[in-house]
C-alpha cells in the first residue's frame, strides 16, 4: 500500500478551512487534489512535473485544467516574464505587446479579422454575447447541454448539472441556483449538441429572437467530436437565419493546434473566444472575429472594459508561449500528439488486459477515461456522457486517488498533455495506471 507524506499539506488545509472561503481559490480544484480530506498544496512546477509542499513529485496531467500547454516554468516563457517584470507589470494604457499578440491571433485563427483582450474566459464570452446581441438587435442565445461557457449568471446554465427534461428539448438548469437569478433563463435556449435536426427546427420557428449560437466546437472535457457534417450544417443554418455563430475555444485554441478547433474542423465561425493554452499559465483571454461585428467596439457602441485587459505581463507570457508552439513549423504539437496517442493507447491496452469495463477517448492532446459499460462510440453528446460518467463515480474516485499516491496527477476523467511530456513520463504513468487499477480493486 502506497502512502504519501502530507504533514505540511494537512496543516495548511486546517488553516485554510478557517480563513479562506471554500478552503481554495477556485472551488472546482478540491475535486481533483484532495486525499483523505487533505488538500494537497503545491510549491513549484518544472516541465511535466509538479511538487507539493511536502516534497512529493507528480507527473502533471492536470496542467491547471489545460493552460500549461508547454508545461511548468518553460525557460522561454520565464525569460520573457522576467524581462517584462523589470519594465513594469501594469501601465493602464496601450502597449506594443497587444498589437503583436493581435497579429499572432489574426495569423493563426481563421475567423480572426480583429481581436480584443480580457483576463478570463468568462469575460471574453460575456463580450462575445454582447457583440452578437448588439449586431443582430436580438436577445436570445442558443447554447448546448453540457457545454461550459464560464461561471457568469447569464451562461452558467445546463453546464455540469444532471440533464433535465426530454433529450431533444432539454430543460435549462441553473448552475448555481442559490444566488443565480431565474430571470437569466428567459434569454437562453438549451439544445442537444450533435443534433442538427433539433437546431434547424428551433431556428425555423424562433430565429427572429435568436442573436447567437455559442458552442464548444469539440467537447474536449467529454472526449466528444462533432458528427460528420454536423458543424457544416450549423454554419449553414446560422447564415441562413442571420444568427451569429460563436465558437468557445477557451479549451481548444492553441491546445488542439495553433488555429484551434475551427482550423481542425475546417468550419469558420463569426466570433471566437479563447484563453487557457493561449496564455501558457498567464491570466489572459481573447475574443475576435469578423471586422463588421468587432467594429461595434471601435465605434463605441459596445464597451469592452477591464483594468487588467491587455496588461503587459500577461501579453509577454502569451507571446512567448505561442513562439514555443510555432517553432520549427509546430514540431512541438507533433511530439505532443505522438506522446498523447501512446499514453491513450497504453491505457486502453491495460483496460483490455485487466478486463476492466472502461474507455479512453478523445484527442491525443486531451482525452478522458471513464469506467462504464458503454462503448466510446455510444457517447456522442452530454446525455450519453453524463450516463457514462455517473454509472460508477466511486470507481473513478478510487482510480484518481491511487494514481495520486503513485505520483500521477490526473483530474479524472481528464488527461491533459503538454509539449514537454516524454516517453519516460508515459512509461511511469502506465505502470501507475496498472498498479492503481489492481490496488483499487477494479480489475477482474
UniProtKB/TrEMBL annotation:
<dbReference type="GO" id="GO:0042286">
    <property type="term" value="F:glutamate-1-semialdehyde 2,1-aminomutase activity"/>
</dbReference>
<keyword id="KW-0663">Pyridoxal phosphate</keyword>
<dbReference type="InterPro" id="IPR015421">
    <property type="entry name" value="PyrdxlP-dep_Trfase_major"/>
</dbReference>
<dbReference type="GO" id="GO:0008483">
    <property type="term" value="F:transaminase activity"/>
</dbReference>
<dbReference type="GO" id="GO:0030170">
    <property type="term" value="F:pyridoxal phosphate binding"/>
</dbReference>
<dbReference type="InterPro" id="IPR015424">
    <property type="entry name" value="PyrdxlP-dep_Trfase"/>
</dbReference>
<comment type="similarity">
    <text>Belongs to the class-III pyridoxal-phosphate-dependent aminotransferase family.</text>
</comment>
<protein>
    <recommendedName>
        <fullName>Glutamate-1-semialdehyde 2,1-aminomutase</fullName>
    </recommendedName>
</protein>
<dbReference type="InterPro" id="IPR005814">
    <property type="entry name" value="Aminotrans_3"/>
</dbReference>
<keyword id="KW-0413">Isomerase</keyword>
<dbReference type="Pfam" id="PF00202">
    <property type="entry name" value="Aminotran_3"/>
</dbReference>
<dbReference type="InterPro" id="IPR015422">
    <property type="entry name" value="PyrdxlP-dep_Trfase_small"/>
</dbReference>
Amino acid at each position: 500500500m502506497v502512502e504519501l507524506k502530507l504533514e505540511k499539506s494537512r496543516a495548511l488545509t486546517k488553516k485554510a478551512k478557517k480563513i479562506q472561503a471554500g478552503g481554495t481559490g477556485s472551488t472546482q480544484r478540491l475535486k481533483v487534489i484532495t486525499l483523505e480530506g487533505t488538500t494537497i498544496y503545491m510549491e513549484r512546477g518544472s516541465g511535466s512535473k509538479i511538487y507539493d509542499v511536502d516534497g512529493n513529485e507528480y507527473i502533471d496531467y492536470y496542467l491547471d485544467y489545460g493552460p500549461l500547454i508547454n508545461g511548468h516554468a518553460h525557460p522561454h516563457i520565464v525569460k520573457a516574464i522576467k524581462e517584462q517584470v523589470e519594465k513594469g507589470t501594469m501601465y493602464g494604457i496601450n502597449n506594443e505587446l497587444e498589437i503583436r499578440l493581435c497579429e499572432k491571433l489574426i495569423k493563426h485563427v481563421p475567423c480572426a479579422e480583429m481581436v480584443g483582450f480580457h483576463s478570463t474566459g468568462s469575460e471574453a464570452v460575456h463580450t462575445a454575447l454582447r457583440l452578437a446581441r448588439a449586431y443582430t438587435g436580438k436577445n436570445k442565445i442558443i447554447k448546448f447541454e453540457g457545454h461550459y461557457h464560464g461561471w457568469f449568471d447569464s451562461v452558467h446554465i445546463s453546464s455540469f448539472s444532471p440533464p433535465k427534461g426530454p433529450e431533444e428539448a432539454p430543460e435549462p438548469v441553473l448552475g448555481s441556483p442559490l444566488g443565480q437569478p431565474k430571470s437569466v433563463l428567459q434569454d437562453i435556449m438549451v439544445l442537444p449538441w450533435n443534433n442538427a435536426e433539433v437546431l434547424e427546427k428551433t431556428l425555423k420557428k424562433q430565429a427572429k429572437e435568436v442573436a447567437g449560437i455559442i458552442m464548444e466546437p469539440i467537447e474536449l472535457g467529454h472526449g466528444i467530436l462533432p458528427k460528420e457534417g454536423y458543424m457544416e450544417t450549423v454554419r449553414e443554418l446560422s447564415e441562413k437565419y442571420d444568427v451569429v455563430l460563436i465558437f468557445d475555444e477557451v479549451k481548444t485554441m492553441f491546445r488542439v493546434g495553433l488555429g484551434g478547433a475551427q482550423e481542425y474542423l475546417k468550419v469558420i465561425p463569426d466570433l471566437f473566444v479563447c484563453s487557457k493554452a493561449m496564455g501558457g499559465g498567464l491570466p489572459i483571454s481573447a475574443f475576435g472575429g469578423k471586422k463588421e461585428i468587432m467594429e461595434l467596439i471601435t465605434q463605441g457602441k459596445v464597451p469592452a472594459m477591464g483594468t487588467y485587459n491587455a496588461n503587459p505581463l500577461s501579453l509577454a507570457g502569451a507571446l512567448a508561449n505561442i513562439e514555443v508552439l510555432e517553432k520549427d513549423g509546430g514540431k512541438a504539437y507533433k511530439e505532443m500528439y505522438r506522446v498523447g496517442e501512446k499514453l491513450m493507447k497504453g491505457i486502453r491496452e491495460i483496460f483490455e488486459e485487466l478486463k476492466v469495463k472502461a474507455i479512453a477517448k478523445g484527442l491525443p492532446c486531451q482525452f478522458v477515461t471513464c469506467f462504464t459499460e458503454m462503448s466510446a462510440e455510444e457517447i456522442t453528446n452530454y446525455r450519453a456522457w453524463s450516463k457514462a460518467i455517473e454509472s460508477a463515480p466511486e470507481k473513478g474516485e478510487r482510480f484518481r486517488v491511487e494514481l495520486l499516491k503513485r505520483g500521477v496527477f490526473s483530474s479524472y476523467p481528464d488527461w491533459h498533455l503538454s509539449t514537454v511530456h516524454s516517453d519516460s513520463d508515459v512509461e511511469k504513468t502506465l505502470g501507475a495506471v496498472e498498479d492503481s487499477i489492481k490496488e483499487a480493486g477494479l480489475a477482474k
